[in-house]
Amino acid sequence: MWSLQNLLFILCIALRCVTCEAGVIHVTGYVGREVNVSCSYDEGYESYEKYLCKNDCGDSDLLITTSHSVKNKYTTHDDKTARIFTTTIADLQSTDAGRYWCGVTRTGKDIYTEVELKLVPDSCCDTVTKVQSYEGYSESVSCSYESQYQNSLKYICRGNQPSTCLQQALITSDNKQNGRFRLDDDKVSGTFTVTINSLTQNDSGSYLCGVQRNSEVDVFSAVELEVEEWCCVKAKHINGIAGNLLRLQCPYPPQHRNNSKFLCKGGQRNKCTDISMDQRVTLQDDAASSSFFVMITYLDVHDTGTYWCGSDPQWRVGNYTKIELSVVTVRCVTCDIGVVSLRCVTSAVGMIHVTGYVGREVNVSCSYDQSYVSHEKYLCKDDCGSDDVLITTSQASKTKYSIYDDNSTRIFTTIVFDLQSTDAGKYWCGVTRTGTDIYTEVKLKLVQDSCCDTVTKVQSYEGYSESVSCPYESQYQNSLKYICRGNRPSTCLQQALITSDTKQNGRFRLDDDKVSGTFTVTINSLTRNDSGSYLCGVQRNSDVDVFSAVELEVEEWCCVNSTKRNGTAGNPLTLQCPYPPQHWDNRKFLCKGDHRNKCTDMVTSRSRFTLQDDAASSSFTVRITELEAADAGTYWCGSDSQWRVGNYTKIELSEWCCLNSIKINGTVGHPLTLRCPYPAQNWDYKKLFCKGDHRNNCTNVTSQRRFTLQDDAYSNSFLVRIKELEAADAGTYWCGSDSQWRVGNYTKIQLSVDATVYVVFAARSVLLLLLLCALVIVHKYKYYKLKGRAKDALCGPQLKLNTITPDILDTKLDDLLLDQRLPHHRPESESPPTYHPSTLTTAAMI
């Protein structure tokens, strides 16, 4: 039997009788893995045997049939509900690549579907993106994709085996968050980002970013992540003076803001003694700067040694600061109070350097020992003579100065307002005591409230996402970073759009790469209102913040060409879309939507749209058959899946329109006048007025007697008067002056005719006439009753009310009038009856 079938098959091949509705099925598999080959069949063949064969489908080429569902490396399953039978080929090798045939056995010629199997290595990729980070950090991995995969499933996995990547995915775009992993998909930029929190060295290795494709193997990009040991924030040497106060700063990672902070002393960090319980030691946390401060009062020479301060009780590498402290004894010469030569005055922190902005305010803070809490403090300038004292704590405020003493922290702060250039210079913080006061020297420097000499210019387009990079020095790794609009450093932090504490704020996102010393602010969905000056800021506790300036220019996202087209419903229309010559082999597209990033592909979703490429002219055409009114709108056609500026055409498509389109209501039985304007140059043209749903298929109605047309050249319009509207007159009318029906030379009128008012009016008229008739009859009846002739005169022997006709009524009225002239029917003294003319008129009408 198989020999006969094979002979028929060979004959069919020669005669090109082997066909399938879907054409050739292309299947791709990974070497060493398995692949599914699925083929559909028509209704009615559910009970027939199916098979898979290779090459020319000879006896030796038959691989498996549905009657023997398992054979060697092949298995098959026939889903009769879906009418699809699937063959699974396991352990794919390079020799398995090639041409296959899905067959359905039937009497005569079998039905075949051609299958082309392609094999690729189960590894990826030629290009690998390398990402470096540190233990405890969070790191983001960016994976780009083409625009046609906007709504496809995205995922990431460990390793380098594409075939099992989806099954072993760490996270997908369906779940967004999975433990330490988070996935964000930015469809505008065509990039999805996977963020891994609390990195460990075990996270180092290879990763694959995957985008699912239903008709082909998934698309992948490779990433190599290296997580290094995070070393000390800082190791530093500090000198202190015996008897004085010492202030130490200990930075920590931002994610440790809620951790317990500590300070211990010892030669090794794992063999040190916690001294934070010492009464001389005070810890003060400053989460804004991601650091805490340690103040040690009454330093002693025995305090010399190695200290470790940090925020991680697990002592993970890098979450601490190593401090080498040397304490020396300084002998201060008592100064003459009259001649102030304060060279011998020292403080725990040495000279305090303060920087302020011209025109703004500045804080000058000075610490003191516990024994001086109740003593008066003051700020003075220059040589601190009696005329140089600016303010004291007993005054609180004075001219441009105010002062506040915080006894709990033992720090008093003076605020200097409205800074001017003359305010720069040397100041002294003083503590009053018996004998010689205690002084701390302060150096105030003033800078302009503007920035900067160098400005980085960034250019982008509406709808795009743009990243602004802000570099900083290594000592500010753990400092607060932020960005603001404008060019005023003094108010930048208060008006920050986003800070490193928040990371995400609406369209703004901040990522801090401490390895490279750069923080990046990404602004999504840009608008032209985002154009302007920006300042990148890094907070410093001991000085003004560090800034860098950026000028952002957001331009209108423009195109190769922007055109307006008109079309007519029911007619075809052809659109032409040019593209750069280098895109000759790119995928071409036409989509519809108000915005290019929110538009629907029309060629793949509408059968009325066909696309034809002409590489010779570097353009393609899209033909729309039988335009519909709903086709009006904005279209985008191009050849660049990344939507780069200039690689597309914007088309505004409008329905073939008119000078004016109006809606008018009329009433049955009433006249109606319509006015139709026309261009002045068409004054001597023939005027047209027709009725029909389409202007090219309408009937001239001016030949009807109820329609009259009158031209008024002075007003560049003509009038159409319809006498006694009928319900059938409702519909669409077109009036104009151009027999060629060029766009704009006509008016479209939608006429609605209301018959309700007429019916109500007619009903009211009939009721009124009946009422008048009844009054006349009653009047006549009373008169004849008085004369004794009511029955004979009014109705006669067999006359009934419903048989009264106009002729009978006229006769009776004549008799009534004649009777009025007969003298024997009334006494002489009786006056003849009179009738009001209106009564007679009404009667005559009846």
Describe this structure in words.
It contains six helices and 60 strands. It is mainly beta and 846 residues long. A hairpin with a 7-residue loop joins strand 29 and strand 30.
Query: Any idea what the radius of gyration is?
Result: 48 Å
Helix content estimate: under 10%
Note the main sheet: 5 strands, mixed
What is the 3D form?
flat
Question: What tags apply to this protein structure?
Answer:
mainly beta, five-stranded mixed beta sheet, 846 residues, single chain
Topology:
Blueprint lengths: L1 H13 L10 E6 L4 E6 L9 E5 L7 E4 L4 E2 L2 E6 L4 E6 L8 E7 L6 E10 L7 E7 L4 E6 L9 E5 L12 E2 L4 E2 L2 E6 L4 E6 L8 E7 L7 E10 L5 E8 L4 E6 L10 E7 L2 E4 L6 E6 L4 E6 L8 E6 L9 E9 L23 E6 L4 E6 L9 E5 L7 E4 L4 E2 L2 E6 L4 E6 L8 E7 L6 E10 L7 E7 L4 E6 L9 E5 L12 E2 L4 E2 L2 E6 L4 E6 L8 E7 L7 E10 L5 E7 L5 E6 L10 E4 L7 E2 H4 L3 E6 L4 E6 L8 E6 L9 E8 L4 E8 L4 E6 L10 E4 L7 E2 L6 E6 L4 E6 L8 E6 L9 E9 L1 H32 L2 H5 L11 H14 L17 H9 L1
Parallel strand pairs: 1-9, 10-18, 19-26, 27-35, 36-44, 45-52, 53-60
Antiparallel strand pairs: 2-7, 3-4, 3-8, 5-6, 6-7, 8-9, 11-16, 12-13, 12-17, 14-15, 15-16, 17-18, 20-24, 21-22, 21-25, 23-24, 25-26, 28-33, 29-30, 29-34, 31-32, 32-33, 34-35, 37-42, 38-39, 38-43, 40-41, 41-42, 43-44, 46-50, 47-48, 47-51, 49-50, 51-52, 54-58, 55-56, 55-59, 57-58, 59-60
